[in-house]
Amino acid sequence: VDLSIPYDAAAKLAYEESDKSMAFPAFKEKYLADAVALVKSKQPVDLSIPYDAAARLAYDATDRSVPFPEFKAKYEADAVAEVISKKK
Q: Whose CB among 5, 26, 56, 85 lies 3.0–4.6 Å from 22's, allowing a Cys bridge?
């Protein structure tokens, strides 16, 4: 039993539901171009979070009287100490 699906099956289904105002070859070309445009518009968006985001947020909530690198070192040391204290 052949269960293969023709390459243009989706275009054929869409054509059958259309008003058939254009010939199938022209419809198929437009359908595929529209499908490609839709896929391109859905390309991944960078949702990465910087490694020091938590420290940066905490720093932004302070009066910034200490330079960020110094704040970050203390923030990370305090975070590590807190995790260690919770293990006991």
A: 26
7-19 tens-digit pLDDT? 999 999 999 999 9
Q: 50-59 — which CB contacts under 8 Å span 24+ positions?
A: 54/79
Sign of CA dihedral 28, 34, 39, 40: positive
Sign of CA dihedral 77, 79, 85, 88: negative
Q: Hunting for tokens 């070309």 — which residue is that?
A: 29
Q: Across the chain, where does the E strand assignment appear?
A: none
First to last CA, the chain: 64
Structure pTM? 0.48
Number of H helices, E strands in the chain: 4, 0
Q: Are 55 and 75 in contact (CB under 8 A)?
A: yes
